[in-house]
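I am sending you the entry underneath: sequence plus fold tokens. Let me know what the token row says about the fold:
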Amino acid sequence: MTQTPIYQVDAFTAEPFKGNPAGVCILKSAADAEWMQNIAMEMNLSETAFVFQEKSSFNIRFFTPAAEIDLCGHATLSTAHIMYETGIVKAHEEISFSSNAGILKVKKDENLITMNFPAYSLNKMEIPPDFEKTTGINPVELYRTGHGWTLALVKNEDELENIKPNLQEMKNSEFGDMIVTSHSTDKKFDFCVRCFAPALGIDEDPVTGSAHCSLAPFWHEKTGKTEFISHQVSKRGGTLRVSLKGERVEISGEAITIFKAGLFV
């Protein structure tokens, strides 16, 4: 019986069981969306990526256990890592992914993989009177991002680490996809972040590359800088190198393969 290879990769880390785990499924051709959704549900990771070669580029799609999404940083990083590791592409070659968020370019330098993503706009919002009751978060500033998430700035890292989000209320509100950020107290990092996405079936995402498509422009406006080191302070934790390049954001990190399996369905 022919098996479809599927991998699990820990992204934005050089250590196993840290960073953000993603599924990577290597296909020979396009697959049915319902089948991909079922595989993502079976993997039960925050995202599973499905990729196949299409002419000179690779088509990539991302699924949470509950829904397809347009863009995922750690699943893109994980997919590129597998493609370089298995020799689908050579280490010196750039990968071009065709995604629902447009063309995503990826390159490798030693152990570091760098992804080129779109930068997302930010629109400042008034903080609704019931926001803290709904979300469990008490921001000093609130924004809507160009990819439909909410971005909340909180006072400091201690407050960020001690957030206890009201996930059930968030899931049923307009704030079901939430980026929360603050300055970092650790001088190794420029800022820190946590991400909650109960609307997508993800209570807390361990490390969220795509959130930095908004975080890079946000912290550029705050600091004037274009180069950042971000610390995602989830339980697993992760480190991302982030550069704002005009209307694009470059996000870099490492990854490690945890296992390879074969799908019989």
User: Anything to note?
Assistant: Residues 57 and 175 are 35 Å apart (CA to CA).
